[in-house]
Amino acid sequence: MKQQHSRIQKRFLGGTIVALAIVFALALTACAPAPTLAPTPVPPTAVPAPATKPPATAVPATAVPATAVPPTAVPATAVPATKPPAVAVPGVTDTQIVLGSFGPQDGPAGAYGVIDRTIAAYWDMVNDQGGINGRKIKFIYENDSYAPAKTVAAVKKLVEEDKVFALVGGLGTANNLGVMDYLVQNNVPHVGPATGSTAMAVPLKKNVYAIQINYMTEGILLTQYALDTMKAKKIAVFYQNDSFGQEGLDAINGELKKRGLSAAVGVSYEAADTNFSAQALKLQTSGADAVILFAVPKPGGSVIAEMTKIGYQPKLLASAVINDPSIFQLAGPGIEGLVIPAWIPAFDDLTNPKIVEYQAFMKKYAPKEALGGFSLSGYCEAMVLAEGLKRTGKDLTRESFEATMDQMKGYAGSPLPNVTYSATDHAGIKTAYLQQAKGGQWVSFGDWLTVK
């Protein structure tokens, strides 16, 4: 019995030991590290994620030692030769500067399309001469048909897709005002916007450099001339119903009020209008003996033709925006004697060496375009921008360009009178002289004038 009990005890102890051994083995297995999975192949250019990073004792040929700089970091002392500048300059590379513009190539203001086409031709000449500071010019201009809504889309394309460095000669008052805040916020320089809106320079915008005299100055000069020289008794104004025409009307009425005279009779038109007989009749019935036009060529010429048809022949004056060779055909004989201010020299004055150069340029680079005030203005606007780029030098950024333009004093390299800017004043020209329509052409007279 004792022996049997002893055997049972031994069996129990043996089973217990085996059970404990199994439990111990299972415990060891649970605590042991999981088997290492073969790492998923990583493309040579990829950076391995921390979870798959190989152990330090088995560094693959492409791996970076633990003490090395991570694959994506570049040591400060080892800058690759192909590394781009710290701050990329829109539209500027070692070999190119991208510039842009907007304006109508069709529609009621299509006559202004020659401005952008002349600017494009000017950059062709510059590129033929080697470019500016070693860089060629790429010029892109968009047709907005004189519609402000289209201008917004065109400018966003130029800035965001084409990555232009700067704009030059963008046309239209409402058009420019529609994109003004956007250009200021993005610090896109705009040299010579083709508008006389006072808002281009007042208040100051650090990136906008106006060239032509503003409509406020034109309105005052024309009113003074109508009253003091033409001896007008009553003035009416034919004006475009937008910020361009309104600024002219306000300037005229401001001068009349200053002299204690009644406000002018205002007769407006819309940019899309094609018939102006009703406006001509309103001007006639106003009893005005002088009419000042703040109108673009087609409406301005058309209303003069309509006034002639009904026998109404007041003294005529107009903003310089009407100055295009087509105006004589549009207006007919009724334009004779019309007076306009001019901020650029006469395009046909061959006693002026700079006009001789302009005409030679047009003959070579824009032979299909008409000589005239519009093409000459585009030529001059491009020249001012080119001068600013040259003076800025090879290290070209928008900030360095604007700093250079702010120091431009009395620039006389173009046909324009001295163009001057400062850090507090971006109105490039503040004087004008007068021209009169005689025998189908503009005849200049008098000296350069400033507002009294």
Order of strands, widest sheet: 2-1-3-4-5
Shape: globular
What is the β-strand count?
12
> How would a textbook summarize the main sheet?
5 strands, parallel
Structure description:
The protein has 452 residues and is α/β, with parallel strands linked by helices. The chain has two domains: 96-213 and 348-421, Response regulator (Rossmann fold), CATH 3.40.50.2300; 216-342 and 435-449, 3-Layer(aba) Sandwich (Rossmann fold). It has twelve helices and twelve strands. It has helices spanning 2-31, 113-128, 148-161, 173-185, 215-228, 243-258, 277-285, 297-309, 326-331, 353-365, 373-392, 398-405, and strands at residues 96-103, 136-143, 166-168, 190-191, 208-209, 235-240, 265-269, 290-294, 315-318, 339-342, 432-438, 441-449. A five-stranded parallel beta sheet has the order 2-1-3-4-5, with helices on both faces. Helix 4 links the parallel strand 3 (166-168) and strand 4 (190-191). Helix 2 crosses helix 11 and helix 7 crosses helix 8. It is globular, with a radius of gyration of 37 Å. It starts with a helix and ends with a strand. The model is unreliable at 1-80 (pLDDT under 50).
